[in-house]
Amino acid sequence: MLNLNNVSITFNEGTPDQKNALQRINLDLQKGEFVTVIGSNGAGKSTLMNVISGNLSPDVGDVFIDDKKVTFLPEYKRSTMIGRVFQDPMAGTAPSMTIEENLAMAFSRNKKRRLKRGVTKKRKDFFQEYLTTLNLGLEDRLTAKVGLLSGGERQALSLLMATFTEPNILLLDEHTAALDPSRAELIIQITEDVVKKFGLTTLMVTHNMQQALDLGSRLIMMDKGQIILDINGDKKRELTIEDLLQEFKRIRGEQFESDRAVLG
Amino acid sequence: MLISLFGAVESGVIYAIMALGVYLSFRVLDFPDLTVDGSFVTGAGLTAISIVNGVPPVLATVLGAMAGFIAGCITGVLHTKGKINALLSGILMMIALYSINLRIMGQPTVSMLNESTIFQQLEAIWSRLGIDAFFNGILTALGADRVPTTWVIVIVMIIVTLGIKFLTDYYLKTEVGLALRATGDNQKMIRSLSANTDSLIIVGIGISNGLVALSGALIAQHGGFANVNMGIGMIVIGLASVIVGEAIFGKRTIAIATIAVIGGAVVYRIVVTLALQVDFLESGDMKLITAILVIIALIAPKMIQARKEQKRRLRKRAELSAQVEEA
After folding, report:
1. pLDDT tens digits for range A110-119
2. 20 to 30 A Cα–Cα from B84, which one of A208, A243, B45, B199?
3. d(CA A172, nearest CA chain B) in Å
4. Pick from B264, B55, B244: nearest CA to B161
């Protein structure tokens, strides 16, 4: 469903600030796979998301979605296939527009936008039905401006908007990081539900190791622009935070040694 | 007095079309577009010179509006494809249009006094209907000693402007319109929902300036001339209409906001007309009056709101201390 083939990207090349944000990344996601991505700040997680979404194009390498090469397809065209939820709850919705208008815009994601009414009676019923699944009472507030909603409500709405057109790929970029623990728990719950319901191929970046372990079928750890750990299946199910930390230390240590060896 | 107020409403309704254009760029797209000062004249100038050269007035008016649309699209391209700051791309287009407008007109002023404009054609049809006599009869009965020469302009323009308002309202609720509004609200989000924000901005600024130019074309025919300087300060007049209108009539929904903008344009004309009746004010003071009006419309609602809020708090405190004393 999603392939990254030897993808590299360097920022500020040739300056003292040079940063190899992604180094020869190879990644293969099967349809319906739910991958969690962890790694420290600057590991390249966000860059990875941006390369997939089309916000950035790689220096080298190619990106394929559903076997279609999309490396140079602009973001807005690619997003017919990609649903995204951002870290900032403000980023995924239009605050001065109503809930139903926001949903209508998301509804048009994989269709051509026309000069027809965006919010029709039929769609309203459909939106209402979907909102009911959130259990937040948003179904009774269709004409409320989204700017009036709380962060958690907005993030739940963003999640719904990103998923209900059943995109080929769902990108979640630390989408619970800005919420309090109980709201984060709720959003995670909704995430699990929708991913399961539609069988979405999902890539979720998180800083929360427990979350990365609890969710999904596969776990990727990134460091310095590389994928240093890729675990799935039974092995992932048995993994603990302790294991992860040790693994991280072991690999980083080794990495460090080998770097030094190269320098020497 | 009555006659000059009548004239204020008449031109106010025509300027309202320009204000709707400014609403589209300034409010909907959140794009402070200064192209307006130039595109208003483009519409006026092209229409005037076309009429002088024998083009039927309706067609000439459409041409003028289309020229404004193109000018707006170029501003949009400068901003989106050329990555020039919104304000600057508008300023550049405005200054470029000054020369282009002079070229179109061939001279600084084009007079249509000997030509038949769209309004004169309408008047010819209108005068046979006898509606003027009816309205003026009412006015005279109410005690007016002087009556307007014709009602055709104000009535037809109210219909046209309201028509444009309803079209705008509808457009902003279509799938494309929703995307356009989101472009002004949260570009990152609507791009992630597969909308091409660049083309939305280009078309949006195009439509905005098309309306501005249409207004210019009609104002030129109303006044009987086009002048290369008639657009100076137009953006501020547009903003004044939008801001004054929203302050007086509200902006809760699109439909309310657009009617408020039209109301604002008329109110603005009335205020200016009344101000000019004051002895020591001259027509040169108009721009100052406009600026002061905008400042008041921007500050007053906030002050009223703050005052209300303060009163509410004081009342709450008073209630609470009364309760404490009782207990």
Report:
1. 889 999 999 9
2. B45
3. 12
4. B264
Substitution target in A76, A164, A173 with the highest count of B β-carbons within 10 Å is A76
ipTM metric: 0.88
Q: Which residues pair with residue B256 across a beta bridge?
A: none
Whether chain B has a CB inside 8 Å of the CB on A101: the answer is yes
Q: Which residues of B touch A (CB under 8 A)?
A: 170-171, 173-179, 181-182, 185-186, 188-197
Contact check, Cβ <8 Å, B194/A110:
yes
Can you give the pLDDT at residue A128? 94
- CATH number of the A1-93+167-182+191-264 domain: 3.40.50.300
Percent of chain A residues topping a pLDDT of 90: 62
Classified by CATH at the fold level, domain B8-113+159-285 comes out as ABC transporter involved in vitamin B12 uptake, BtuC (1.10.3470)
Q: What angle do CA B207, B211, B214 make, to 5 degrees?
A: 135
Q: Could you identify the residue written with the tokens 């005068």?
A: B127
Domain ranges of chain B: 8-113+159-285
pLDDT of residue A255 exceeding 70, the answer is no
Q: Do B191 and A91 touch (CB under 8 A)?
A: no
CB contact under 8 A, A94 and B197: no
**What's the pLDDT at A254?**
58
Q: Is B109 helix (H, G, I), strand (E, B) or coil?
A: strand
Residues B146-200: pLDDT tens digits?
Answer: 778 888 899 999 999 999 999 999 999 999 999 999 999 999 999 999 999 999 9
Range of weakest confidence among A47-61, A224-238, B180-194, B240-254:
A224-238
In chain A, CATH 3.40.50.300 sits at 1-93+167-182+191-264
CA dist B201 and A109 (Å) reads 18
Q: What is the pLDDT of residue B2?
A: 81
Instruction: Spell out which residues of chain B touch residue A173, defining contact as CB-CB under 8 Å.
Output: none
- Per-residue model confidence as pLDDT tens digits over B45-84: 999 999 999 999 999 999 999 999 999 999 999 999 999 9
